[in-house]
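Ticket #4471: structure export looks truncated?
Reporter: QA, pipeline team
Priority: medium

Steps to reproduce: submit the single chain below to the structure queue and open the exported record.
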Amino acid sequence: MDLGIKGKRALVLASSKGLGHGIAVALAREGANVLLCGRSGERLESNCKAINAEGKGRADWIWADLNDEMFVETVSKAVTDKLGGLDILVNNTGGPTPGTSEDMTADRLETYFLSMVARVITLTNTLLPGMKAQGWGRILTVASSGVIEPIPNLALSNTLRPALAGWSKTLAAEVAAHGITVNMLLPGSIATDRLADLDNVAAKRSGKSLEEIEAERQQRIPAGRYGRVEEFAATAAFLCSEPASYVTGSMIRCDGGAARSL
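Actual output as written to the record:
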């Protein structure tokens, strides 16, 4: 299938590794010109070299930290300077530290709210006028399956990510007439460094081995395994495509059937 995004300009947040990097690669392979951003200049530069070596879409990068109060200004300027505008925005952030509801403090809530919610919304609002003017845009926000089924010991994530779900659904209705789609993509257990970290935390808390934790988690997934970054990224690329122009206001799961809710 031709996704119809050759030459489209895409920004992928938190794309130095993991899901963000996978999405950037998938978009570039469809011919999009991609701006990667994150906190590791070395990884970002290496990622761009690999993407550009494939000779399909072009990749560039910028150092940007969601914890920085100048994040929105830095990234929006880079979009103008390096891409000349934007067609596709992939909102992606790191997850907060594990913990229970009782572990949450006002300071931790505020810190993660700024980096995971407020700056995502503010950046999107900053970049929206250009999409409206051209009558085409794709906004995809990567969240977590915890939005629909809270994950044990991830109280902060379970609290903050649903705020993005409410915002995304509201925005979708507001901008659909401008040719802009707004969706959320919810990963389940995808094999990334983040998942490995969470499995290690679970192993230490339970006194079980890492192998036991991984086996137990995969047994609860109908597909019987962890997902691959490439599978998740392919789903993201479709949601950013021209053929997906009638898909908006939706939350798409990529979790191997793990979520039991309707």
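Status: closed, not a bug. The export was complete when the record was re-opened. Leaving a note from the reviewer for reference: Strands lie at 9-12, 33-38, 59-63, 88-91, 137-142, 180-187, 251-254.
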